[in-house]
TrEMBL record:
InterPro entries: OligosaccharylTrfase_OST3/OST6. It comes from Theobroma cacao. Residues 1-25 form the signal peptide. The keyword Transmembrane helix applies. This is Probable dolichyl-diphosphooligosaccharide--protein glycosyltransferase subunit 3B. Belongs to the OST3/OST6 family.
Length: 342
């Protein structure tokens, strides 16, 4: 009788264990199937999460989960703040997601790309401990605490956009993202249209070129281009483009006041660069006028007056540049007279 009871207990235990294992496997397969369905509904493959789906896929299932999540935290009300680059980063994140799915032949079931919007899912933001944007976080299969056990991407790595996101994923998950498939600048239809227009215009363009009647044959165009290049070079425009510097700032002490000149050598606003570039351009144009135009004037009095005006205006412009440099950096420019004059 004791042997029968032992056998009955073992059979019941094995049956119950198999039932639990099968139930867990079915539950996990259902979650993966739901995620694949949501992924297929998204054009880029990024699954949009909210508080309900975060609970369904992350907090409710027991660890280890059969998948990992890479999550982009977004806030649509902050898309207008250019310094955050949220819209651009969201597009780059979608690019990584679509490239990962394409490179893995749409058979991936281990990593899913998701995004969470602040207004819709404030509880989820609090659950992850997100208090600043941009923010990307990887939730692994064994992560129990979404805040403490998940890994945040360093904000300093966002500068390389999609490539840095792919490197972060590959270094943490040991999965291969593969090459980033960026869409072409022009579609095939647009390229075909441009080619057709070029073929139509080519005879007319060739006729103008041989007749010397194009804009490139006009000296005024070259003169204007040279002045523009000079102004672009001395105004710090390339610095403004690379650093994405604003033209002005709002005064912290008075929100109704705008700051066009920033005192301090650590930053240069676009407006002050253009102001100094304008002063340099005035001097350059006056020098060109004196050396290429004034020499053909026959009236000696007119020459002297024009020369004095050019010298006076150039002296004023250079003095303003020196004053602004001294005000901004604290460095002074001093004149030195010959020692024999002392």
């Amino acid at each position: 009788m004791a042997i029968s009871a032992t056998h009955l207990f073992l059979v019941s235990f094995i049956t119950l264990s198999l039932f639990l294992v099968i139930s867990k496997a079915e539950s996990e397969s259902e979650l993966v199937a739901d995620l694949l369905a949501l992924q297929s509904e998204s054009k880029s493959g990024v699954i949009h999460l909210d508080d309900r789906t975060v609970s369904k896929f992350l907090t409710s299932p027991k660890t280890p989960r059969p998948f990992s999540f890479i999550i982009f935290f977004d806030a649509t009300q902050l898309h207008d703040k250019s310094e955050l680059h949220l819209r651009e980063l969201r597009n780059e994140f979608a690019l990584v997601a679509s490239s990962f799915i394409t490179n893995n032949n749409s058979s991936n079931t281990k990593l899913f790309f998701c995004d969470i919007e602040f207004r819709e899912s404030q509880s989820s933001f609090h659950l992850f401990g997100v208090n600043s944007l941009p923010h990307i976080r990887l939730v692994g299969p064994t992560a129990k605490s979404l805040k403490d056990d998940s890994e945040q991407m360093d904000q300093g790595d966002f500068s390389r956009m999609a490539e840095s996101m792919a490197e972060f994923i590959e270094s943490r998950t040991k999965l291969t993202v593969g090459p980033i498939h960026r869409p072409p600048i022009l579609s095939k239809k647009q390229l075909a249209l441009i080619a057709a227009l070029l073929l139509i215009w080519s005879p007319f363009v060739a006729k103008k070129i041989f007749a010397g009647q194009t804009l490139l044959h006009d000296p005024k165009i070259w003169l204007s281009g040279a002045v523009f290049v000079y102004f672009f070079s001395v105004s710090g425009a390339m610095h403004n483009i690379i650093r994405k510097m604003p033209m002005f700032l709002v005064d912290r002490n008075d929100p109704n006041k705008l700051v066009f000149f920033y005192q301090g050598s650590g930053m240069q606003l676009g407006a002050e660069g253009f102001a100094v570039g304008f002063l340099y351009t005035i001097v350059g144009l006056l020098l060109a006028f004196v050396t290429h135009v004034l020499v053909y004037v026959k009236d000696a009095t007119a020459k002297r007056v024009a020369m004095l005006v050019a010298i006076f205006v150039s002296f004023w412009a250079v003095k303003k540049v020196i004053f602004l440099d001294n005000w901004k950096t604290g460095y002074g420019v001093h004149g030195f007279w010959p020692s024999s004059w002392n």
